[in-house]
Write a structure and sequence with these properties.
about 190 residues, alpha+beta, 434 Repressor (Amino-terminal Domain), Jelly Rolls, 2 domains, 4-stranded antiparallel beta sheet, 10 strands, about 30% strand
Length: about 190
């Protein structure tokens, strides 16, 4: 997968602070709502630490946003057309999970995200990241192990899974080849 490498650390730090302040929350309140330590939130808001996908999942869940919506707001993308060359790409510094926001960031109800999960990597998100969302995963290449609460699903190329009620979800690639999949979300 070819990607544009965009450093969104600064804009993301500013967006997280803006989202927190727009709600009138202190760092302590965001920490309580998200399960992320106050110290880590402060470091991320000052762009002193690169947040992981898991950490961003917790923060976006606390804000009632999807991760892709949070990233799109940070990158200030707009318009009804989303050319691949300009689609925001974010890479998790810990797992090298790569997330491309495919959908135009017009704020519509549908979001499409393309994810490349490296061999042996896994990324987990809390149940709060799935609240008020209709969510499907379509595997484009490789094999994905998706753990939804206590249920494990193994998806191969072409398989599509609709997630059930909000539960903690882990996306795992237990193979020696990368896995690419689409995540389709609709806010309900």
């Amino acid at each position: 997968m070819s990607t544009i490498v965009t450093d969104v650390t600064g804009p993301l730090a500013a967006r997280l602070k803006t989202e927190r302040e727009a709600r009138g929350w202190s760092v302590a309140e965001l920490a309580e709502r998200s399960g992320v330590s106050r110290a880590m939130i402060s470091k991320v808001e000052r762009a002193e630490a690169s947040p992981t996908a898991a950490l961003l999942g917790k923060l976006s869940g606390a804000f009632g946003l999807t991760l892709s919506a949070l990233l799109a707001r940070a990158e200030r993308a707009g318009g009804r057309f989303s050319r691949r060359a300009q689609q925001p790409v974010w890479t998790d510094p810990e797992t090298h999970y790569r997330r491309r926001t495919v959908s135009p960031s017009t704020g519509g109800p549908l979001e499409i995200v393309e994810v490349e999960l490296p061999a042996g990597a896994s990324v987990g998100f809390p149940a709060a990241a799935y609240t008020f969302r209709y969510h499907q995963v379509l595997v484009l290449a490789g094999t994905l192990t998706l753990i939804e609460g206590d249920t494990q699903h193994t998806l191969a190329k072409g398989d599509c899974l609709e997630l059930g009620p909000p539960a903690a979800v882990t996306y795992a690639n237990r193979t020696s080849r990368s896995c690419t999949y689409l995540v389709q979300l609709v806010r309900v």
